[in-house]
Amino acid sequence: MKKLPVKALACALIVALVLPMAACKNKSKSREKSRSGTVISADSPWFDNVIFKSKAEVDTKKDLEYASQALAGSDDQYVGIYTNGYYKMPTGNNINWETFDYNKYAISYISLVDKKTSETVNKIDLEEYLPKNGYIEQVTYADGKFKVRVTSFDSKTSQMAVKDMVIDAKNGKVLETKDKPYDENVDRYYDNTFELGLYTIKTSMEWDENDRAFYNIYISKGEDSDVQIIPLKDKEKNIYGVPLVLMLGDDKILAPASTDSDTIYFEIDLNTSNATVVDGKKYEWLDIKNISNAITGKDGTLYCTTGNGISKINLEKKQLEEIFNYSWCSVNRGYLNYLQIVECSDDSLLLWGEQYMTTYKPGTATEYMFIQLNRAATNPHAGKTVLELYAPYNSVDINVGEAIIKFNETNGSYFIEASDRYYDAMNEDIDFSQMNSEDDYQSYSLKLNSHMSNELAMDILNGEGPDILLNTSDYGQLNSTNYLVDLKKYIGDLDSDKYFTNIIEASEYDGKLFQLPLCYMVTGIHTDEKYAGKSGIGFTTEEYEKFLKETLNGTDVIPLGQAPYFATLFASMSDKFLVDGKADFTGPEFAALAEYVKNNVPEKAKSWDDMYSETDVAYAVGAIPFKGDRMGNGSQVAMYTTTYGYLGYFYQVAQLQGSTAILGLPSADGRGPMLQSYISLAVSAQSKNADACGEFVKMLMTDDVQKELGAGGNFVLLKEAFRAGAKDAVDYLNGPGGEIYLGYDGTEPNSKKVKFSDKNIDQLEKIVSSISRSNTTDAAISLILIEEMPAYFSGQKPLDAVVKIAQDRAQKVLGERG
């Protein structure tokens, strides 16, 4: 496999993990109206559910490396499952790995599960069918039979060989065996497989001679037919995925391809094998960036998952028709988001997938879930009034999802529905191929932040916004009684011996708590505490300049150019510049930040390509090497980080050879690190019933929920839960998890070099206790500064002239908000 250039890799990660959720291009699609205030009727859709779990059966007398399962298929009565993994193998330098028999440690079996009872009807061990250098390539199940493909390597002939077997699922008898030569167009890994009538269509990512990503489409008609290979390429863009394939007729298919800037729609003629790019407007209704996991139902209908549920694709009407919404059942939507469709119709669904685990535990087999959903005759919540919870990207934490279910089952008057009506409001077309630095990424993030803040603010003022807002703490514009409710009356006076009350105080704005940080991250400079300034928790700009020039040899760990760098420092001190709706940039604090940036920060951030060429590693916030060194070579003493959770913090401590402090960014007063909410909650000032929403807030502040959040590796408010979660992480890293999580330095596990203790937990608690400021950026103000401050940095204008313009513009924005 060819290596993707860092620029392409960075864009691929953004496309895959973050930005596709925030870059839907469907501008013509009007936003759905809020369901807030809707009274649920008896005939409103509702699905009853049955949940059963599946876990690998392993020999408990042996140490387990890992064991996982894959869905092989299903029929009317049964589900076929393929289980694979390995037991712990021996270690040491005296093992001849060339002749080592891995199959002695392999876990490889197929099992037949009854869909109604969840009982395993039969289990068939595949180990006897594995040659010494062989492995299971593929397992499928249908109509009472398993089809198993075994691929092996003959060291004498240096040839690959394939054996196809058909096995009776109930009695384990081999019904048919077929040996054949290896064909790389058939016997290989594929990203996706689609069964469309008589056709089997598979997809695979490839790279051309210019390291540009493209996709091959493999089309076959029948098991032994020739395979058509059709490349989907673009001369300028990387293609990162083909989320689904549709039959457009007897001899034509549609293959939408995701690129680093848009979606390209290929129509493929099956007679000529030609792929033709067509106008994307023709298929805008498909909303490709918001769908996945497409399967064909028994009636030939194509179903797919969307961010909020499951829809069927109606080619004739050119629309997606929702048949199931995650709010139409009492299953935690945090689980539903991780499941794939096994079977689907308008009235019945079977879903399968890995049960989401907050923390991986070595030596424990992964657990999987089946969820059967059947349409109910009546809705059990009839008569209740809907409260809308805005969940960005339709993502809900497991514990928040559990609280939603509990609220809905116990509250007699209100019912919380989670959704993201604003998905299509993320309407800026982003060309990821042009995003090639941290400056570019920050600029995009601020623009998106500003846009979404405006959208939510306008809807709330007009009475059309959501009742509860999840994870909107980044939207500083909303911190006003015009938009949000002060939550202090719902959480009450918290005991500072029991809670990190400084985290609550850091989240307040003008003395009011608009956004409750249930879980949070820490932003700052991770280094040894001996490098701190006089405050002991951060740096003044003068102190950081000294640290930069002497300790860091002039190479900053904050990877930003002047304007974004200044906006970042401004945001960390915005309580000094934005007070009671007034902007004041005339003080010495503003000047100190501006002078420091002008004298010490390069005009532009390094491109990702340049960073790659210097270090040969991918850069990311929280893992920024400097001096051109690779991570882990013993010379890294600092990093710019937004630290998530206990494992993230302890990993950085190991990476920095034991440095335990996270200090504040350079500031005028040497303040400490910043709080960044990971899970936050807010209530709209225009909610249909703020007190009912407040009851939900109280539910998430209970000790039980805080303990569950802490056990999931999150920094939480409850000190007891915080320490318990940190202790779990310490035990994990000091045990078998350390080797897995901390990695290796050459052949030696890094876990052998470091051991964690209660002292490390005390140091982490000290960091959290030093936080006094929340990173709540007012994106509109930051964008003004990014536009105006370069005139000062470049010497075109004196600071007072730039300040006057920037302050006037900022005040105008603040004044328009009221």
Report on this model:
26% of the residues lie in helices and 29% in strands. The chain is α+β, with helices and mostly antiparallel strands and 818 residues long. Among the domains are: 179 residues, no CATH class; 87 residues; 244 residues, D-Maltodextrin-Binding Protein, domain 2. Strands 26, 27, 28, 29, 32, 33, 34, 35 and 38 form a nine-stranded mixed β-sheet that branches. Strands 14, 15, 16, 17 and 18 form a five-stranded antiparallel β-sheet that branches. Strands 1-25-24-23 form a four-stranded antiparallel β-sheet, with no helix packed on it. α4 crosses α18, α14 runs parallel beside α15 and α15 packs across α16. The longest helix is centred in the middle third of the chain and has 24 residues. The protein is globular, with a radius of gyration of 28 Å. 42% of the residues are buried.
Short description:
It contains 20 helices and 38 strands.
Strand % is 25-35%
Note poorly predicted spans: 1-29, 615-633
End-to-end Cα distance: 57 Å
Overall mean confidence score, pLDDT: 87
CATH class of the domain at 521-678 and 728-813: Alpha Beta
- Round the Cα radius of gyration to an integer and report it: 28 Å
Total strands: 38
Annotation field: number of helices: 20
The biggest beta sheet is recorded as:
9 strands, mixed
- Envelope shape: globular
Helix content: 25-40%
As for the CATH topology of the domain at 521-678 and 728-813, it is D-Maltodextrin-Binding Protein, domain 2
CATH architectural type of the domain at 521-678 and 728-813:
3-Layer(aba) Sandwich
Structural class: alpha+beta
